[in-house]
Amino acid sequence: MACIYLHIPFCKKACHYCNFHFSTQTADMQTFVDALIQEIELQKSYIKEPIETIYFGGGTPSLIDETQLKSILAAIYMHFDVADLIECTLEANPDDMQQSKLAAWKNIGINRLSIGIQSFQASALTWMNRAHTVEQSHAAIQMALDAGIHNLSIDLIYGTPSLSDQALMADLDWIEHYQIKHVSCYALTVEDKTALKKSIEKGQIENVDSEKQARHFEIVCARLKTMGLEHYEISNFAKPGYRSQHNSNYWSGKTYLGLGPSAHSFNTISRQWNIANNALYIKSIENGLLNFEIEILTEANRYNEYMMTSLRRMEGFDLDLIAAKFGKRYHEHSIAMIKEMDSKNIFNQKGNQYSLKDEAKFLADGIASDFFILESAPSS
Asked: CB–CB of 103/143 below 8 Å?
């Protein structure tokens, strides 16, 4: 099974923390959609397996017209095997959601929504420079539920300077109130080339507090657990049966095709990414050309990625799988690292499977990097 990601590179305004590729110039939206449909045809040979999930991300996919969404999906259905499609997700911002749109989305096959709430606190939304209001957040969630879209995920950001512990708890109260089935919670990160980074460097706003973020992470984990949401990935929580199938495919190393400017693709052997420029992307596609960079993955690359994604998931990593997939040297290296970390008491062990204990999850990326092999090792 494989999956398709479509990057819709348009937003109404720039959030201060965001470093994803997007443009606030939406005049060429239809030209972009035409190019995206053409790229779908150009890339029809990239995936040979049936498509299991489709994901519209961005940017803000809810900005594009329903007829444009329908034409994009029609092109996918024409050029790929979608007989086994189980999940089709659309990221949406609260201010774009209307009852007529929700009905249209359901009608064309969207069966899961990921709503960019980020916070139910007005001050936090203002601090982030979000386009929507708290009132629009509540209206959007209620409209989705009323429309019968119960496979609903919402995004929250914690660890911002303006968000108190009490405000975070209030945000989580709303998760319980609406009985949300899936929540993605992210610690605010200061990315290069963002308004947030520049403001911090100029001393205009305070930097993030790592201790506060760790405390917020613990609050989120503990509270969502009481609501029956399993912590199946470091930033993701779901009621049983409501995990993100698309993201789970990423984390389990399945093939995926990324379409649109800046989108990444992966076929287990190589990774490639499209040019992150709307105008150049469109021009290339109109000339029948794919404009991307490619990296052939070494064995060490693949092992490192396996460790990174595995340690972020509740299942953890499997020594038997490492031995079978990567060979003796990687297996022995993994065992040596486990022994080296033994005194830190960070792993749960079940046979040859190792996962992080709750108190170590906030440090998952750092722990994974300790396992990394920097140069390609010979296979056995």
From this structure: no
pLDDT of residue 380: 41
Query: Is the backbone of residue 228 left (phi > 0), alpha (psi -120 to 50) or beta?
Result: left
Does pLDDT of 291 surpass 90? yes
| Residue-level pLDDT at 54 | 98
DSSP class of residue 181 equals S
Upper half-sphere CA count for residue 153 (Cβ side, 13 Å)? 27
**Is pLDDT above 80 for 136?**
yes
With CA atoms as reference, report the closest residue to 341 among 358, 318, 360.
Answer: 360
Q: How many CB atoms lie within 10 A of CB 284?
A: 20
Which residue has tokens 């209307």?
Answer: 98
Q: CATH 3.20.20.70: does it fit domain 2-250?
A: yes
Maximum distance among all Cα pairs of the chain, rounded to whole angstroms: 59
What percent of the chain stands above pLDDT 90? 89
Using CA atoms, how far residue 333 sits from 187, 307, 336, in Å, is 31, 12, 5
Across 199-211, average pLDDT = 90
**Long-range contact pairs involving 309-312 (C-beta distance under 8 Å, separation at least 24):** 309/250, 309/251, 309/252, 309/253, 310/251, 310/368, 311/355, 311/356, 311/364, 311/367, 311/368, 311/371, 312/233, 312/234, 312/235, 312/251, 312/364, 312/365, 312/368
Domain residue spans in the chain?
2-250, 299-371
CATH class for domain 299-371? Answer: mainly alpha
